[in-house]
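Hello Y.,

Per our agreement to keep a running log of every chain we model this quarter, I'm adding this entry. I've kept the format consistent with earlier entries: sequence first, then predicted structure.
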Amino acid sequence: MQRHHIRDSGVPGAQPLLFAHGFGCDQHMWRLVAPRFEDAYRVITFDHVGAGGSDPAAYDRDRYASLDGYADDVLAIVHELDLTDVVLVGHSVSAMIGVLAAVAEPDRFARLVLIGPSPRYLDDDGYTGGFSAADIAELLESLDSNYLGWSRTMAPVIMGNPDRPGLAAELTESFCRADPDVARQFARVTFLSDNRADLAKVSVPTLVLQCSQDVIAPVVVGEYVRDAIAGAELVLLDASGHCPQLSAPEATTAAIAAFLRD
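Predicted structure for the entry above:
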């Protein structure tokens, strides 16, 4: 509980909704969505090790050298809280972390909600991820040389919605709270990962939730994820940016609720 600063709320014994945040964020990013499910579900939020209120002493560079270490943490939380029939809601990189966890122990999971997922950010032959090799190299070099400067520059790009500067300011603040060394490694793990082959192994009903304008995970990537997971559903939100739980919480909540009712 302390390792991941877990918050357990809602209806005890009800179906659990486990919310997993993305890179540079923490569970606070779910505050406009997760509480809306507390009247009917058990709602669990947490911080990945190295983020938010997690235990900084728990960070291990070897363990978190791949997304598998983060997926193992998700499974550890599931076991610690003795959760079954879990609906995992994963944002950004945590969408793939959720995929890995559900593939490893499918009997524990009932559904996946993948918000802004990308199985590979780097373009490849016959695949559009949205970034060239030069783009990724420049991004990681900028992170290494000036993390705070990168945060102030990239947060508005990631968030979108330039007419609502408060959203970008919140994401910037979240990035700047993170330990720079942890963030640099997590960024490498995130932007250099390739989980395309894992998608076909998903065996639970899956919702892909995508903003219609997202520079980090463009619509074509959401379509790829939908097509790669058997029976997956893609819902395009009339929203921009990579963080609809902040920029369009009502639409995000409604899409998740409709998927849970199906």
